[in-house]
Write a structure and sequence with these properties.
22 strands, 6-stranded antiparallel sheet, alpha/beta, Beta-glucosidase, 2 domains, TIM Barrel
Length: about 425
Amino acid sequence: MIKLRVAENKKCLETTNGEKFFYLADTVWSAFTNAALEEWNDYLELRKTQGFNVLQINILQQWDASETELNMKPFEYKEDGSFDFSKRNEAYFERAEKMVQMAVEKGFVPALVLLWCNYVPETWGAEISSVNNMPLDVVEDYVTYVDGKFSKYNPIYLVSGDTDFPTELTITYYSLALNTIKKLSPQCLTTLHVRGRLMEIPDELLYSDNLDFYMFQSGHNIQFQSMSYQLAEEFSNKPVKRPSINSEPCYEQMGYSRNLYGRFTRFDVRKAAWQSLLSGAEAGITYGAHGIWSWHKKGKGFGLVGEAFDKPFDWRDAVKFEGAWDYAFAKSLFKLFSLHDLQPLDIVLKNTEEIRVASTAGLNKIAIYMPVNTTLKLNKLLENYEFTIIDLEQRRFAEADVSFKDNITVIGMHNFEADVVIIGEKKLGS
């Protein structure tokens, strides 16, 4: 069983024996309500072989999950169809615990959401659907129950789910949940999964000693994909230094939010990952496939609630999307080149922010992400470095064409048609 803590440099996570832990998560919000145990086992086997090590799951029913024949609900219904939060469905939570146990036995860290936004009054989710707002006087008992079920597996607790913090009441809910779970199980890491593009966290939470690391989401709005690096910069520069993770970049084959025509491609999700990782969010990245997060099955319904996305793929098809391997490859490259303790580096002589650069401590290694092929000029003389170009689509390696002039390093156009990462390693003895 993996036990995690925040690394001393406050930039990444590590195991309790000091080994660096690159957070590579898959998004399976709807697993507890929608996935049969046999399906769950098959899914875990594949993601394990790919190198994923974290699974993000909503403890309660996901409000925009796909329809399912399982009929597993966390609470009994009242006459109006809403949950009776005083009457838990023990069978639901026992089954959820079994699924967590299966995942942990295969080497995954569960990242469990306590309260998705629609369960908390006055959030943006509650404005859309307030039928299942949890009463405040139930929150502490609910979190205590969750602690008894899951904390033995050393999960990460995502105290909030896709939330904003518009009022004092909302902040009270999440503060209570955070402080309760941390008091009961201080060894479990905590974070907040916040609404897409949200940069501000209330002071009550930002300055809390009970919050361990940051999550942000660059999200599924096609107009704001630059958030992948803008949010990484923002959270890495918060007044309280903590590791940060893009926990919801655009999902592969997800329809654009607000029901706009179009879907995010393998390239789009890969770009979001690398731009985040090299802009201050080096602790890891979360992958998502449209069909996995809602655990969709062909022929089942998928409603236009929440952000209103186009229909998902069957989960059996979505689990095979190639982008999952791209994210696994990113994890492998971080390990291969020991890309730890990264600091964003502003040395690109090009009128674009799309190209992202970061360096390790002491400038021993430099990592560059280029989404589009071009001659690259860097405002730094890097004569004592060896450069390797890595084709991220075909996962091929090549030597770089590098020249120097007037204290400028010039890396010529490469021969690949896809986006690349360029790794510069300082030569021995230099």
